[in-house]
Amino acid sequence: VSVVLSLVVNKLAGLPIDTYHLEVLGGMYTLLYAAGIGLLLSQFRLRRLWQDLLVKLAALIVLCDIGYVAYFNSLYGEALEHIALVYCAAMLVRVLTRQPTVWDGVWCALAAASYGWAKFFNIPVAILLVLVLEGIVLIRLGRRRVLAVGGAALALLLGVWAIVPGWMDVETNYNAVFY
Fold this sequence. Notes:
Blueprint: H1 2-13, H2 22-42, H3 49-63, H4 66-69, H5 78-97, H6 102-118, H7 123-141, H8 145-163, H9 173-178
């Protein structure tokens, strides 16, 4: 998507077509991250307004630290990894504090699969996230349709994990992104 948007920017600005605009990718990550933080903060409300505001302000300060936001202009997987983890946290709070729906199961599976897809290194944790999130939804909802969504996410993650070449184990996480 960022490549297509860069092509549009090039066309509108009269720039060479082969120029990639990293700021477009950073902008996309910023929008996804803002939506993820908004989703996370909207999942809970403390009894007292001042406590609620204080906790949410503290969460914003921590989550919007330059150490995290600087990743948004990076070609490594950290930005997507971090965004997906925020979505996983938001979905965990959601399925624990409200009666989940089948759509919550879909969003849980997508968030966990995105976390695993961001870097091969995350796949084992992403599999655990799928099992936990989908398990909670299944137990609280009692509908087996959730199993299909969770199973698809698990199959995707296990499939990717199975085809990662063995030599990548000796490469760093950063080099694995390029391969």
